[in-house]
Amino acid sequence: MEKWLKPLAVVATLVMLGVMIGGSLVTKTESALGCGNDWPLCNGRWVPEYTLESLIEYMHRFVTGIAGIVVGVFSVMAWRRYRGNREVRNLAIFGLLFIVVESILGASAVIWPQSSGVLALHFGFSLLAFTGVFLLSLFVLQRDKREKWVQMPVSKGFRNYIWGVAAYAYGVVYLGAYVRHTGSSMGCSDWPLCQGRLIPELAGQTGIHFAHRAAAALLFVLVLGAMIYAVRHFKEKRRDLYGASILAFVLTAVQILSGGLVVLFRLHLYATLFHSLVITCLFAVICYMCVQSLKQPHKSTVRH
Questions:
Q1: How far apart are CA 68 and CA 62, in angstroms?
Q2: Which among 57, 102, 147, 236 is annotated as catalytic?
Q3: Contact 139/88 with Cβ under 8 angstroms?
Q4: How far apart, in whole angstroms, are the C-alpha atoms of residue 227 and residue 225?
Q5: Which residues share a beta bridge with 238?
Q6: 202, CA 20 to 30 Å: which among 19, 58, 170, 231?
Q7: 225-228-234 Cα angle (round to 5)
């Protein structure tokens, strides 16, 4: 079990990342109904028709199914290997739960028409599923480094702050998904201005798009604050939070720039997928900081 657990952790994370990108591809190419209103069949067949929309939708379903199997095996193996560890148990349940939830929501979106608000939840639940698997994988991969990295506790103030940032970041992600599902991605046709103005008329698709931009700007400030605090206080004895805070800040900056590229390149496929990829990684890193902020140093690492 020990021999296969770490490689399986990497595979599970990559497969879940594929699910995230595949979902964005389905939305971008408007392939959600590539299989009609049938599920799990595709237009009444097990083998889909050779149309682009059908193949994209069916492949997304296939990869999601494979991901469920891989993550299920990985979660059970990790649970058995670290039997009695509450963090492993909670992360395993969390990841599997949201894989099931996002699959059910995806199926219901095919069978029954859904509002833009409900469709945006699909990406949000997929993100939570990925994050659960990602955090469990990091636990497995970094288990032997805990004593080296966690040499001091985190203040309650910072812990509350970073958990608040994570909750806010999830709201920004949901708003971004809502922008896509309401067709508001070009609500601001230029960047960094919006309709040639710093603050446009906040109505319709322009208002929805600008709200997402404003929310992302505030997220940038919040992540910057977390990084400044981590650089000042965690460089020596909390290398986990120190490194993660810098990575989170870089990803936030890249995320904002990638959002600009989506507009400047007029919703080009690669720009849109890259935008989804970066926010997936960013949210996972912020959640990693949340989990690490709860950890206390081992007694043997505390210097008296």
A1: 10
A2: 57
A3: yes
A4: 5
A5: 150
A6: 170
A7: 125
Cβ-based burial of 195 (10 A; exposed 0-12, middle 13-18, buried ≥19): middle
Nearest-angstrom CA–CA distance, 76 and 65:
17
The predicted model gives 66-76 an average pLDDT of: 94
Give mean pLDDT, residues 166-180. 95
Closest by CA position to 190, among listed 210, 161, 219: 210
- Distance, first Cα to last Cα, the chain: 38
Supply the DSSP symbol for 197: B
Q: Tens of pLDDT along 182-208?
A: 989 999 999 999 999 999 988 899 999
Question: How confident is residue 113, by pLDDT bands cut at 50, 70 and 90?
Answer: low
Single-letter amino acid code for the residue at 39: W
How far apart are the C-alpha atoms of 6 and 278, rounded to whole Å?
24
Q: How confident is the model at residue 296 (pLDDT cuts 50, 70, 90)?
A: confident
Give the contacts of 113 (CB within 8 A, at least 6 positions apart).
none
87 is catalytic: no
Quote the pLDDT of residue 52: 82
What is the distance between the alpha carbons of residues 69 and 75, in angstroms, rounded to a whole number? 10
Residue 304: pLDDT band (50, 70, 90) is: very low
- Helix (H) or strand (E) holding 96, with range, is helix 86-111
State both tokens at 11.
Answer: 């595979």
Q: Is 38 exposed, middle or buried (0-12, 13-18, 19+ CB in 10 A)?
A: middle
Percent of the residues in the chain that have a pLDDT greater than 90, as a whole number = 65
DSSP letter string over 120-179?
A: HHHHHHHHHHHHHHHHHHHHHHHGGGHHHHB-SPPPHHHHHHHHHHHHHHHHHHHHHHHH
